[in-house]
Specification:
ABC transporter involved in vitamin B12 uptake, BtuC, 2 domains, two-stranded antiparallel sheet
């Protein structure tokens, strides 16, 4: 009887560890709900949360693969600003949106490849290479813009990051948004059931049926509640679907492709990975090339939403992206982390920033608290491992 109780205690502890960041996210959201008298969950604020953090989510999709290798990229905020400035200058000169966007994406890929070349070919520490990139591209942004801000007037380009899905049922409550939310929840539940059946078929250990059901119901309920709130305002932003599509794509890449498994292997033990036949240098090169591309995508979205290119764009965004990955469970040493975890980490930081702003906290205090959150996340990763040694 005592053994059964101990076993149940271990299972509960394991479940709490698995969902610790989700629990923390919920607690923080509930806390700020009361501290702001419910303002944090108003329709307009929920929409703003999505729009304001869309570029951070896009940066995460580049940063997480880099962190999986055990490194970081400090240049992404500057690259974001540089690409936004490039887009504004190109469109101001009369170039159509599509060619301008393609040139900007190619520029981002070239920047990432340039940094990846020095890191993978000559083993220069990524910290040094990307710190150099941060200074270089911030300076180039100043040069391109001549220290001024350039407005972006193309309405089609601005709709990409600031527009909403068309409503098919007229004005008022956005039933199209609710229909999409219900479809998304049904697809999610079906995918969870099929994934569990596949694991059972292959003899892979799975969570309890009740845990799977409970987690699916809770997540679906939260999605539907938030969707109801958003549907009373403007509905789903277009950029939300861009983010979701890219998140699903990168989740597939990290978990189901050779490149994705190589990232985990290189971060876990680079020498062992190389000895087992994994091309570690190519993996590092591709990780930083991908980071450059996603920084360019984030730069385009940022420029489209703000409708202006400014030399100060993206300042500190690299820290938000890195913090989101670490808070979401990515290991400092590499080899561990997930897209879903990084997204949870992103919204933990987003709600902290948003809630403190609503309470009138100064930017300095927000930075201080964010610093402690990063330290706590890293400590949670490293302290247990240190004790085991």
């Amino acid at each position: 009887m005592e053994n059964i109780k101990n076993h149940e205690g271990v299972k509960v502890t394991k479940i709490l560890r698995q969902y610790s960041m989700i629990i923390i996210l919920v607690l923080i959201a509930v806390l700020f709900h009361f501290l702001t008298n419910g303002l944090i969950f108003t329709p307009i604020n929920l929409t703003n949360l999505i729009l304001q953090n869309s570029y951070i989510v896009l940066l995460i999709l580049g940063m997480l693969p880099v962190i999986l290798t055990g490194n970081v990229d400090l240049s992404v905020g500057s690259v974001l600003a540089f690409v936004g400035a490039e887009a504004a200058v190109l469109m101001q000169s009369g170039l159509p949106v599509l060619p301008a966007a393609i040139i900007c994406l190619v520029s981002g890929i070239a920047i990432g490849a340039w940094q990846g070349f020095w890191i993978s070919k000559f083993d220069i520490p990524p910290f040094i290479v990307t710190l150099s990139g941060e200074l270089v591209f911030r300076g180039l942004t100043q040069i391109i813009l001549d220290g001024k801000s350039i407005p972006i007037n193309d309405q089609g380009f601005r709709t990409m990051a600031g527009g909403y899905i068309p409503e098919l049922t007229g004005s008022g409550f956005k039933w199209t948004t609710m229909a999409l939310a219900i479809v998304a929840c049904v697809i999610y539940i079906v995918m969870q059931v099929r994934a569990r059946q596949q694991k059972v078929k292959n003899g892979v250990p799975v969570k309890s049926v009740w845990v799977t059901i409970a987690s699916s119901v809770v997540i679906s309920a939260v999605v539907l509640y938030l969707s109801v709130q958003i549907a009373t305002a403007n509905g789903y932003p277009i950029v939300l679907f861009i983010m979701l599509a890219l998140c699903l794509l990168y989740n597939f890449i990290c978990n189901r492709t050779i490149f994705g498994r190589s990232l985990y292997a290189v971060g876990g033990n680079r020498k062992a990975a190389a000895l087992s036949g994994i091309k570690d240098r190519r993996t590092m090169f591709l990780a930083y090339t991908n980071m450059g591309m996603m920084a360019a995508v984030a730069g385009l979205v940022y420029a489209a939403r703000s409708a202006v290119a400014t030399p100060k764009a993206g300042v500190g965004y690299e820290l938000d992206a890195i913090a989101a990955c670490y808070v979401g469970g990515a290991s400092v040493h590499g080899g561990a982390g997930s897209i879903a975890g990084a997204l949870v980490g992103c919204f933990v930081i987003a709600i902290l920033n948003n809630g403190m702003s609503m309470m009138g906290a100064s930017p300095d205090l927000q930075q201080t608290i964010k610093g402690f959150v990063i330290l706590a996340a890293v400590a949670i990763d490293l302290v247990p491992k240190t004790r085991k040694k």
